[in-house]
Amino acid sequence: MVAGVASSLAQGQAAQADYAARSEQWRQNVVNSWAAARDEQKQLLQRELQEQEVNAQKQHLSLVEEAEKKATAQVSAASAGVSGLSVSNLVADIGRKAATNRNIAQRNWEMTAQQLRDEQEATITRAENRINSVSRPTSPSGLATAAGVGSALVGGARSFSSSFNMA
Length: 167
Fold this sequence. Notes:
Helices cover 90% and strands 0% of the residues. The chain has helices at residues 2-79, 85-132, 142-166. The longest helix is centred in the N-terminal third of the chain and has 78 residues, at 2-79. The protein is an all-alpha fold and 167 residues long.
């Protein structure tokens, strides 16, 4: 009877120790998953800032090139003795083309930024998937241990009773 009770209690303790170990593994998986998500988001944010800086540089260079082309056209026209509507149209056309190029660069930057923001949101889904890929452990039932102890006690009592009846 004592051996049966001890065995049931040992099995209950082993189940509890196994549960504690699996719980710690699950908790560590959660911590690691969220840490990986934060790292991914930091990298994506850094890339977005870099892309924003590239766009700002492109916009600035476009403005400088536009001013240079307009000045070159005006100086060339003046040195050739040309003035009037044709020079104004040429300068306006240079401005329109430069503005179109800046708008395209801006739209490209906005699409890239949106894609990076979408990827940042996806990091949350990936973290949740990592977490859900490891099943959350369930606590062992104390009822099973109690039933084992009870069974050992009943079996021991029967054995004790039957040996008493023989005598």
